[in-house]
Amino acid sequence: MYITMKLSKLIKLAAVAAALTLGGSPLAGSESRSDWKAHWITPSLSQSATNTWISYRKEFKVSECPDRLVARISADSKYWMWINGELAVFEGGLKRGPFPNGTYYDKVDIAPFLKEGDNTIAILLWHFGKQGFSHNSSGQAALIFEAVSPGLEILSDQSWVCALNPAYGSTDAPHPNYRLPESNIRFDARKDMPGWNMPGFDVRGKMHGADNVDEMAWPAMGRMAERPIPMWKDYGLKEYVSVRQSNDTLYCKLPYNAQVTPYLKVEAKGGEMVRIMTDNYFGGSANNVRAEYITRDGVQEYESLGWMNGHEVWYIVPSGVKVVDLMYRETGYDTEFSGTFECGDPFLNELWKRSARTLYITMRDTYMDCPDRERAQWWGDEVNELGEAFYALSPSGQLLARKGILELVNWQEANGVIYSPVPAGNRVIELPLQMLASVGWYGFHTQYWFSGDSTFVAEVYPKVERYLLGSGLWEFKDNGLLNVRPGDWNWGDWGDDIDTEVLTNCWYYLALKSQKEFARILGKQRDAETIEALMKRISDAFDAQYWTGSAYRDPNYKKQTDDRAQAMAVVSGLASSDKYPALFETLKKEYHASPYMEKYVLEALFKMGHADFAIERMKSRYAKMLKYDYTTLFEGWGIGSEGFGGGTVNHAWSGGPLTILSQKLCGIEPTAPGFKAFEVKPRMGTLKTASASVETHYGMIRVQLSRRSAKSGVASLTVEVPEGTTATVTASNGRPRMLAAGTYSLKIKVD
Fold this sequence. Notes:
The protein is of the alpha+beta class. The chain has four domains: 33-228, Sandwich (Jelly Rolls), CATH 2.60.120.260; 234-332, Sandwich (Jelly Rolls), CATH 2.60.120.260; 340-665, Glycosyltransferase, CATH 1.50.10.10; 689-749. Helices cover 27% and strands 27% of the residues. Strands 11, 12, 16, 17, 18, 19, 20, 21, 22 and 23 form a ten-stranded mixed beta sheet that branches. It has a six-stranded antiparallel beta sheet with strand order 5-4-7-2-10-13, with no helix packed on it. A five-stranded mixed beta sheet has the order 9-8-3-6-15. The longest helix has 22 residues, at 500-521. The protein starts with a helix and ends with a strand.
């Protein structure tokens, strides 16, 4: 390490602090074999092969139906459950990985489905049987089920019957790309076991007693953690918006980009193949998932259970097949679009709307970068997503980021490295700048500050301390600034002209800023002082090393001035306000950021007092993207060569404008954790009207703004302050007004 003696001492103090707090187990709250009465079960013929489907049944008697009976259910990888012939769970289970050797389990109240007398539980299990960027395979196809109440125990054991479901199999090539643990699903209706999931099914010769496989499954599945997010919201089967036919293909339009399972009802002879995919099948330059259905004789119905996404579902139907009906089922994360934004500019309204749709399509088991090519929890994407969730969604949406935070730190390597995507079984690559963004001000701290939930802070603190300070991963130069760590992939953004050294120091500074606040929450004052000293060292050296008089540049950097670096200097606080005029001139002419980093450029412009240009730049940057007839935003600024080599048309990181429009333009921002106190500081630019609503744990915040003209410096403001909160309305001249709970109509000065 090339560091000064003073800094070396600070690092050592930080390392000691980290060592003292590393005693917390990453398995906190997890459960072991001794916590369960039930057994892992599987068919005797199960080989846990890729794309294995297993049918399970249990018949039992109930003398008196309980008011509540919570079942714990876990599987590798997904399951569907019927009780007495009624669908009780549509796609249960989460992709494996609360920690590298761990599995999630669901808790489901099955009491509403029970009846006195004979009862039947039927479960269909889908074992992915391979690794992916979003799943860490156990290698064991198995189910565990446990429901216990006074006088009633339902436990998975050898009294259950099961069988490999003969109708399910894999398609021929092409298969999904290597990033996806899911396989294409082929269903051959000629091999089906009709009624296997219904009461009264005769199992003789078809299903056999299950094998207990605890000795294999418990080590394979590892310790188990309770599902930390809601079960999926099932929107039910719906009609397509429209259906058009060209030759043998039916193009079925969805109302928006959605996560769907396609349904069909056809009349055919046996052996005909219907192929199913979406317009996103080849999204992001890689094969995604598709499905095949092989008919039996007669009229038949089928729903392909592996979700896919897009704006259209395509059914390729042979001439011998008569289509009776086509429908789709949308499922997704259980939250509401409770946040709103609207202004006098239709372009900005549409941009906010598409940002919200992009956010939702990239939420499921984890936050995803995209729902088709990868379905991976890349944390550069998640940092933007989790911030958007507070302005677009109801509070249940906040739980997904909390899940991701704990996964990220629980997968920390022995040498201190934190990497994404996690959970993942075939990817172990660190992107240092993404990790700094994740553990820092816009990642972990935003989750705490906006949600008011500090319960995860104690668990993540020692691990972040270890990553930043206690492991020797980050080295300082004699000049007080950081060396660039290449990690496994020295990636800061798509786009061009990336000034990596300036960005590294900005992101590290913001990571320290977050950790300092967490230290204070935990009462670790000495840690906070150590971190503050490191921040001051960076701040003191930053201008001396990088400021040219007109912009921030690493002296060894020879390309065009990086707009990202200027923006990060502003939003981190490293750039003092006297630099703003020069930085503004730079940002007026430099356009290098991808949609991922453009969010920070826009935020910097608002912070510097240039709302009018921020809006102008936002509209210019997103103009080409919004000309396309999509409901979601892209990975790049365009498609194909304009998408950084073929990016996706539904990419999480592009939704930064949603946050900017609600938080900066309408000015709604928390000043205490969870919006217990908040500020309303509008920056309207050239807009005459704007409004936004944000749902918090206390209730709805609503802001409405209007003025006579775009040049008027006075606006009418209506603000609703929820019970239990206070608001500060800050005019452009800086004069604050404190408001208790209630609804207010005010006149304020605006930019």
